[in-house]
Amino acid sequence: MFGSPSLLTRIIIGKGIGLAVGLLGFFLLPVLVPEADMLVRWGILLWYTTLGAIIGMFGVFNWHPVLNLPMPWWVRAPFLGAWMNFVLILFAYDTMEMMLQTMFGVGSFLESPFWFVAEGAIVGLIMGYFATKLGGEGKETVGR
User: Fold this and answer.
1) pLDDT for residue 2
2) Cα–Cα distance for residue pair 113/41, rounded to 1 Å
3) Is residue 88 part of a domain?
4) Whole-angstrom Cα distance, residue 49 to residue 43?
5) Residue 28, domain member (yes or no)
6) 50 occurs within a structural domain
7) Count of domains in the chain?
8) Helix, strand, coil % over all residues of the chain, rounded to 5
9) What is the 3-state secondary structure (H, E, C) of 11-53?
């Protein structure tokens, strides 16, 4: 499974790490934020699993076609993680702000939901590293 570059391996690794992060959020959220409802918990679980699949699929693109520049995994994966969490914030700003205020208190500099952008970059970096290390990157992952 890990011998030759494989897009399927990249996606499985990304989804596996995303599932682990999502399960961590699913089970820790009621402990940290008792007011968090079940929809938010399921959303976090499915969001990170999907993020892992996207980062796994984007391993094929290691060259930017418009800028004509290389896109190494350590640029591509954190950018995708940060971007996807930014989009998540745009959809659920109030809920995420309430969660952070509950965890860190009102008035804390950590109450801004935009901290999830940095968290997405870190999770994306981890997903990208393992997906590239175990599944390869570039057009070789697609096969013939």
Assistant:
1) 62
2) 16
3) yes
4) 10
5) yes
6) yes
7) 1
8) 75, 5, 20
9) HHHHHHHHHHHHHHHHHHHHHHCCCCCHHHHHHHHHHHHHHHH
Q: What DSSP string runs through 104-122? A: H-TT-GGG-TTHHHHHHHH
Task: Report DSSP state, residue 87.
Answer: H
The list of the chain residues with pLDDT below 70 reads 1-3, 144
Tens digits of per-residue pLDDT, 2-15?
Answer: 667 888 999 999 99
- CB under 8 Å to 48, separation ≥6 — which residues? 18, 19, 21, 22, 25, 123
Contact 11, 143 (CB under 8 A): no
Other CB atoms within a 10 A radius of the CB of residue 28 amount to: 13
Radius of gyration (Cα) for the chain, nearest Å? 16
In a domain, 130, yes or no: yes
Rounded to two decimals, the pTM is 0.89
d(C-alpha 135, C-alpha 112), whole Å: 35
What is the domain extent for residue 104?
A: 7-141
